[in-house]
Amino acid sequence: MPGLMDAHTRIPPEQGRFWLFEYIDADDKDEVRKAVRQNIYYGADAIKLVADNGAFYYTAEEIRAAVEESHAAGRPVSVHVMGGEAARNVILGGADSIEHGFDLSDELLRLMKEKGTWLVGTEFPQAHLEKLDPGGTMGTAKDLAGRIVDRLGRAYRIGVKMAFGSDSVSSLPGKNRADMMLDCLDSWDAAEVPPAATLKALTANAALLLKVEKMRGAIAAGWRPTSSQLRPTLSRTFRLASGEIRDEERESHQAHQVGLTHYTPPHSGRNRLFIGRLRRRKPGI
Protein backbone atom coordinates (compact mmCIF):
# COMPACT_ATOMS: atom_id res chain seq x y z
CA MET A 1 0.00 0.00 0.00
CA PRO A 2 1.53 3.37 -0.97
CA GLY A 3 2.69 5.36 2.03
CA LEU A 4 2.54 2.49 4.50
CA MET A 5 5.27 2.60 7.12
CA ASP A 6 5.73 -0.55 9.16
CA ALA A 7 6.67 -0.45 12.84
CA HIS A 8 6.79 -4.27 12.85
CA THR A 9 6.47 -6.02 16.23
CA ARG A 10 5.92 -3.88 19.31
CA ILE A 11 8.47 -3.96 22.13
CA PRO A 12 7.25 -3.96 25.77
CA PRO A 13 8.53 -5.23 29.11
CA GLU A 14 7.56 -8.85 29.85
CA GLN A 15 4.06 -9.70 28.57
CA GLY A 16 4.18 -13.48 28.85
CA ARG A 17 4.47 -16.25 26.28
CA PHE A 18 0.90 -15.89 25.02
CA TRP A 19 1.62 -12.46 23.55
CA LEU A 20 4.74 -13.34 21.58
CA PHE A 21 2.73 -13.30 18.34
CA GLU A 22 2.32 -9.55 18.86
CA TYR A 23 5.22 -8.40 21.05
CA ILE A 24 8.95 -8.89 21.50
CA ASP A 25 9.52 -8.91 25.25
CA ALA A 26 12.57 -6.88 26.28
CA ASP A 27 13.38 -6.37 29.95
CA ASP A 28 16.63 -4.46 30.13
CA LYS A 29 18.76 -2.16 27.99
CA ASP A 30 20.53 -4.96 26.17
CA GLU A 31 17.28 -6.78 25.36
CA VAL A 32 15.73 -3.53 24.17
CA ARG A 33 18.67 -2.87 21.84
CA LYS A 34 18.46 -6.40 20.46
CA ALA A 35 14.70 -6.12 19.89
CA VAL A 36 15.13 -2.83 18.03
CA ARG A 37 17.88 -4.29 15.85
CA GLN A 38 15.73 -7.34 15.13
CA ASN A 39 12.81 -5.19 14.01
CA ILE A 40 15.04 -3.06 11.80
CA TYR A 41 16.63 -6.17 10.30
CA TYR A 42 13.19 -7.44 9.30
CA GLY A 43 12.29 -4.15 7.64
CA ALA A 44 10.74 -1.85 10.25
CA ASP A 45 10.50 1.78 9.12
CA ALA A 46 9.75 2.96 12.66
CA ILE A 47 10.07 1.50 16.16
CA LYS A 48 7.14 1.14 18.54
CA LEU A 49 7.60 0.51 22.27
CA VAL A 50 4.89 -0.21 24.82
CA ALA A 51 5.91 1.37 28.10
CA ASP A 52 3.10 0.68 30.56
CA ASN A 53 1.00 -2.36 29.73
CA GLY A 54 1.67 -3.77 33.20
CA ALA A 55 2.53 -2.78 36.75
CA PHE A 56 6.15 -2.18 35.75
CA TYR A 57 7.38 0.14 33.02
CA TYR A 58 10.49 1.11 31.13
CA THR A 59 13.11 3.31 32.76
CA ALA A 60 14.41 6.41 31.02
CA GLU A 61 17.68 4.55 30.37
CA GLU A 62 15.84 1.67 28.65
CA ILE A 63 13.90 4.12 26.49
CA ARG A 64 17.15 5.90 25.65
CA ALA A 65 18.72 2.60 24.56
CA ALA A 66 15.90 2.09 22.05
CA VAL A 67 16.18 5.68 20.85
CA GLU A 68 19.94 5.43 20.32
CA GLU A 69 19.63 2.25 18.26
CA SER A 70 16.68 3.50 16.26
CA HIS A 71 18.07 6.94 15.51
CA ALA A 72 21.39 5.44 14.46
CA ALA A 73 19.42 3.62 11.77
CA GLY A 74 17.31 6.68 10.90
CA ARG A 75 14.10 5.36 12.47
CA PRO A 76 11.77 7.34 14.74
CA VAL A 77 10.59 5.89 18.06
CA SER A 78 6.99 6.04 19.25
CA VAL A 79 5.90 4.80 22.65
CA HIS A 80 2.51 3.65 23.89
CA VAL A 81 2.06 5.25 27.31
CA MET A 82 -0.84 6.87 29.15
CA GLY A 83 0.76 9.15 31.75
CA GLY A 84 2.46 9.28 35.13
CA GLU A 85 6.06 8.28 35.79
CA ALA A 86 6.05 5.91 32.81
CA ALA A 87 5.38 8.87 30.53
CA ARG A 88 8.03 10.96 32.26
CA ASN A 89 10.59 8.24 31.53
CA VAL A 90 9.52 8.16 27.89
CA ILE A 91 9.99 11.91 27.57
CA LEU A 92 13.33 11.99 29.41
CA GLY A 93 14.52 8.98 27.42
CA GLY A 94 14.21 10.99 24.22
CA ALA A 95 11.43 9.15 22.40
CA ASP A 96 10.14 10.96 19.34
CA SER A 97 6.48 10.62 20.27
CA ILE A 98 3.99 9.51 22.86
CA GLU A 99 1.05 7.51 21.53
CA HIS A 100 -2.27 7.95 23.37
CA GLY A 101 -1.19 9.85 26.52
CA PHE A 102 -4.75 10.13 27.81
CA ASP A 103 -3.62 10.90 31.37
CA LEU A 104 -0.85 13.41 30.70
CA SER A 105 -0.76 16.18 33.28
CA ASP A 106 0.03 19.80 32.46
CA GLU A 107 3.47 19.26 34.01
CA LEU A 108 4.20 16.39 31.64
CA LEU A 109 2.82 18.30 28.66
CA ARG A 110 5.14 21.19 29.48
CA LEU A 111 8.03 18.74 29.73
CA MET A 112 7.07 17.37 26.31
CA LYS A 113 7.17 20.87 24.88
CA GLU A 114 10.56 21.49 26.48
CA LYS A 115 12.04 18.25 25.14
CA GLY A 116 10.36 18.41 21.74
CA THR A 117 8.34 15.22 22.25
CA TRP A 118 5.43 14.82 19.84
CA LEU A 119 1.95 13.76 20.92
CA VAL A 120 -0.04 11.38 18.73
CA GLY A 121 -3.10 11.35 20.91
CA THR A 122 -5.46 8.87 19.15
CA GLU A 123 -8.47 10.88 20.22
CA PHE A 124 -11.21 8.25 20.35
CA PRO A 125 -14.76 9.65 20.34
CA GLN A 126 -17.27 8.21 22.80
CA ALA A 127 -18.89 5.76 20.35
CA HIS A 128 -15.51 4.17 19.63
CA LEU A 129 -14.70 3.80 23.32
CA GLU A 130 -18.05 2.13 24.00
CA LYS A 131 -17.21 -0.48 21.40
CA LEU A 132 -13.55 -0.81 22.35
CA ASP A 133 -14.10 -1.17 26.10
CA PRO A 134 -17.69 -2.29 26.77
CA GLY A 135 -16.77 -3.41 30.27
CA GLY A 136 -15.56 0.04 31.25
CA THR A 137 -12.12 -1.07 32.44
CA MET A 138 -10.79 2.42 31.59
CA GLY A 139 -13.81 4.19 33.12
CA THR A 140 -17.06 5.07 31.41
CA ALA A 141 -16.77 5.88 27.73
CA LYS A 142 -18.35 9.28 28.30
CA ASP A 143 -15.88 10.24 31.02
CA LEU A 144 -12.85 8.95 29.11
CA ALA A 145 -13.90 10.74 25.94
CA GLY A 146 -14.18 13.92 27.98
CA ARG A 147 -10.71 13.41 29.47
CA ILE A 148 -9.26 12.84 26.02
CA VAL A 149 -10.78 16.05 24.66
CA ASP A 150 -9.58 17.94 27.74
CA ARG A 151 -6.02 16.62 27.34
CA LEU A 152 -6.02 17.51 23.64
CA GLY A 153 -7.10 21.06 24.38
CA ARG A 154 -4.49 21.46 27.11
CA ALA A 155 -1.75 20.07 24.87
CA TYR A 156 -2.64 22.54 22.13
CA ARG A 157 -2.73 25.51 24.49
CA ILE A 158 0.60 24.55 26.09
CA GLY A 159 2.20 24.26 22.66
CA VAL A 160 3.04 20.56 22.45
CA LYS A 161 3.91 19.39 18.94
CA MET A 162 1.07 17.19 17.73
CA ALA A 163 0.44 14.85 14.81
CA PHE A 164 -3.03 13.53 14.10
CA GLY A 165 -3.44 9.84 14.86
CA SER A 166 -6.17 7.27 15.15
CA ASP A 167 -6.22 3.77 16.58
CA SER A 168 -9.19 2.06 14.95
CA VAL A 169 -8.99 -1.44 16.38
CA SER A 170 -12.71 -2.13 16.73
CA SER A 171 -15.57 -2.06 14.22
CA LEU A 172 -18.74 0.01 14.10
CA PRO A 173 -21.79 -0.93 12.00
CA GLY A 174 -21.78 0.75 8.61
CA LYS A 175 -18.30 2.18 8.97
CA ASN A 176 -14.92 1.13 7.67
CA ARG A 177 -11.58 2.04 9.23
CA ALA A 178 -11.27 5.17 7.12
CA ASP A 179 -14.67 6.40 8.36
CA MET A 180 -13.63 5.71 11.94
CA MET A 181 -10.37 7.59 11.44
CA LEU A 182 -12.34 10.64 10.34
CA ASP A 183 -14.53 10.37 13.45
CA CYS A 184 -11.48 11.37 15.51
CA LEU A 185 -11.61 14.83 13.95
CA ASP A 186 -14.75 15.45 16.04
CA SER A 187 -12.57 15.31 19.16
CA TRP A 188 -10.29 17.99 17.70
CA ASP A 189 -13.33 20.15 17.04
CA ALA A 190 -14.59 19.57 20.59
CA ALA A 191 -11.18 20.55 22.01
CA GLU A 192 -11.40 23.83 20.07
CA VAL A 193 -8.18 23.21 18.18
CA PRO A 194 -8.26 25.68 15.26
CA PRO A 195 -8.89 24.04 11.87
CA ALA A 196 -5.55 25.28 10.51
CA ALA A 197 -3.72 23.59 13.39
CA THR A 198 -5.68 20.38 12.79
CA LEU A 199 -4.71 20.44 9.13
CA LYS A 200 -1.06 20.94 10.06
CA ALA A 201 -1.26 17.96 12.43
CA LEU A 202 -2.67 15.88 9.57
CA THR A 203 -0.01 16.97 7.13
CA ALA A 204 3.32 18.66 7.82
CA ASN A 205 3.56 17.47 11.40
CA ALA A 206 2.95 13.81 10.59
CA ALA A 207 5.64 13.92 7.92
CA LEU A 208 8.14 15.64 10.20
CA LEU A 209 7.55 13.19 13.04
CA LEU A 210 8.20 10.19 10.82
CA LYS A 211 11.19 11.87 9.15
CA VAL A 212 9.74 11.63 5.64
CA GLU A 213 9.10 15.30 4.89
CA LYS A 214 11.62 15.20 2.04
CA MET A 215 10.08 12.07 0.53
CA ARG A 216 6.45 13.14 0.36
CA GLY A 217 4.70 15.90 -1.57
CA ALA A 218 3.38 19.21 -0.36
CA ILE A 219 -0.22 20.33 0.00
CA ALA A 220 0.01 22.90 -2.75
CA ALA A 221 -1.05 23.57 -6.31
CA GLY A 222 -0.03 20.70 -8.57
CA TRP A 223 -0.02 18.04 -5.86
CA ARG A 224 -2.69 15.60 -4.79
CA PRO A 225 -3.08 12.67 -2.37
CA THR A 226 -2.95 9.19 -3.83
CA SER A 227 -4.87 7.63 -0.97
CA SER A 228 -8.65 7.58 -1.31
CA GLN A 229 -8.81 7.49 2.49
CA LEU A 230 -7.08 10.84 2.62
CA ARG A 231 -9.21 12.85 0.24
CA PRO A 232 -12.29 13.30 2.48
CA THR A 233 -10.04 14.28 5.38
CA LEU A 234 -8.36 17.04 3.40
CA SER A 235 -11.60 18.15 1.79
CA ARG A 236 -13.32 18.54 5.14
CA THR A 237 -10.41 20.27 6.80
CA PHE A 238 -9.74 22.62 3.90
CA ARG A 239 -13.38 23.69 3.95
CA LEU A 240 -13.07 24.50 7.65
CA ALA A 241 -9.71 26.22 7.39
CA SER A 242 -9.58 27.74 3.92
CA GLY A 243 -9.17 31.34 5.01
CA GLU A 244 -6.47 30.58 7.57
CA ILE A 245 -4.64 28.22 5.24
CA ARG A 246 -4.47 30.83 2.49
CA ASP A 247 -2.88 33.23 4.97
CA GLU A 248 -0.36 30.59 6.06
CA GLU A 249 0.53 29.74 2.47
CA ARG A 250 1.29 33.37 1.69
CA GLU A 251 3.73 33.37 4.60
CA SER A 252 5.27 29.96 4.01
CA HIS A 253 5.16 26.95 1.73
CA GLN A 254 6.12 24.49 4.44
CA ALA A 255 2.95 22.36 4.47
CA HIS A 256 3.90 18.82 3.53
CA GLN A 257 1.82 15.72 3.76
CA VAL A 258 -0.35 13.65 5.78
CA GLY A 259 -2.11 11.70 8.32
CA LEU A 260 -0.79 9.23 10.86
CA THR A 261 -2.85 6.25 11.96
CA HIS A 262 -2.41 2.88 13.56
CA TYR A 263 -3.63 -0.07 11.54
CA THR A 264 -3.47 -3.62 12.82
CA PRO A 265 -4.93 -6.18 10.39
CA PRO A 266 -6.73 -9.19 11.94
CA HIS A 267 -4.34 -11.85 13.26
CA SER A 268 -1.33 -9.65 12.53
CA GLY A 269 1.50 -9.01 14.96
CA ARG A 270 2.59 -5.93 13.07
CA ASN A 271 1.63 -2.43 14.09
CA ARG A 272 1.62 -0.09 11.11
CA LEU A 273 1.82 3.65 10.77
CA PHE A 274 0.02 5.07 7.75
CA ILE A 275 0.93 8.29 6.04
CA GLY A 276 -1.30 9.44 3.23
CA ARG A 277 1.08 9.75 0.34
CA LEU A 278 1.02 12.74 -1.97
CA ARG A 279 2.55 12.84 -5.40
CA ARG A 280 3.15 15.46 -8.04
CA ARG A 281 0.59 15.49 -10.82
CA LYS A 282 0.83 16.80 -14.33
CA PRO A 283 -1.08 19.99 -15.17
CA GLY A 284 -4.65 19.29 -16.15
CA ILE A 285 -4.86 15.86 -14.50
Please describe what this structure looks like.
The chain has eleven helices and ten strands. The chain is an alpha/beta fold and about 280 residues long. It has one domain: Metal-dependent hydrolases (TIM Barrel). The strands form three sheets. It has a four-stranded mixed sheet with strand order 1-9-8-6. A four-stranded parallel sheet has the order 2-3-4-5. Helix 2 packs across helix 3, helix 3 runs parallel beside helix 4 and helix 5 packs across helix 6. The longest helix has 22 residues. The two termini are about 20 Å apart. The C terminus is likely disordered.
Round the Cα radius of gyration to an integer and report it: 18 Å
Spatial arrangement of strands, main beta sheet: 1-9-8-6
Indicate the structural class.
alpha/beta
Shape verdict: globular
Oligomer: single chain
Query: What is the number of domains?
Result: 1
